[in-house]
Amino acid sequence: MTGTAIGTDEQRAAALADRLGINPDFFWLRGRRPAHPVEVNEYDVVDVYGYKEVLEVFGNPGTFSSDVAELIVGDAEIDPEFSDGTLLQSDPPEHTKLRKIISKAFTRGTVAALEPRMVEITHELLDAVAGQDRIEMVNDLSYPMPIIVISELLGVPKSDRDLFKGWVDRMAHSAVALTSGDHDLDDDVDAQAAMRVVPEMFAYLREHAAERRVKPREDLLTKLVEAEVDGERLSDNAVVNFANELLVVGHATTSALLGNTLLCLDAYPEHLAAVRADPALTPGLVEESLRYLSPIATAYKACVARTELAGVTVHPGQLVAISLSAANRDERQFDRPQLFDPYRDPNPHIAFGRGIHFCLGAPLARMEGRIATDILLDRFPLLRTDPDKPPTFLPLPHVISTSELPLLVR
To answer: How far apart are CA 385 and CA 378, in angstroms?
Structure first.
């Protein structure tokens, strides 16, 4: 399916992926190209690697549905309330209505207003490890920072943050088990947790949302329960499901983005001094990191109508795996795609998706990535990876995210 890595850019990309121990299935991160932009694998899953073809899938929700739960978990039972009113699993016209209402509450202004507190949180977390010779990026910053930011945004009490860590850890464990191929769904896997839902978390958020209907506060949960478009408001399930998605997906994406950005800088030190000297370069750095090591490597759709993609027939009932990460290395779209270039302009990557399912949390993730990177580089002039302790990546087939990232700071 793939050829050999060739050329300076390709060789450097391959060396980085090998040194980091990135999932070998992500062959495009090793400078190799897919033989075809669309392929059907041994499990009858349609793999979409090409940029143009990924956009085609995103742009045709009538053929490629976002409701993939049944295809992924099979006969495992999923409580319907956990999919009622979810943005991630809904299609038009329901998705259109939901997004309009949620967008009334979760605005760019709401996100922008978080910047001062985001700076404070980042410094507070780094103050806690000040004076040490090393930090563990995930535990010390990239995991807690987005959880704290999103929790405060929603109005979750500080005393309850540890509850979310336990729930998120449970989801990650179940997702690994579900995708490992070595399990019995009836006995070993919490299918609901693997689909990013824990009943206890759902009940907790529902209780808080109900309280906001009676006692409004200055927080996002209140805005969500009060948001209205054309006389319609979100159902209780829709409010809770969006809050759940923001906490789980928003946290995971930002955490991955922070770690991946530092790994890119560490691998390309020629850009490090420039970014340290000029923070105005950080937004471009974050965008290129999103392209080069896309946190969400793969998204999934369900084919609901016979069609063709790049000459490949796709049938109803087939799972379609769209590789955002591979598309972001498509040489038909990007000049020298294996080169990490923070000055790349334009940079039309699709790390946050495209079209009606473009990530609503993208402005939040970008701001968190920019702020945390600037503060880390400013506070730790000698920040670098530990050659004796390489990073560990989550063993999931759809994400590029470190679970451990030891860094030296002296």
So the answer is: 16
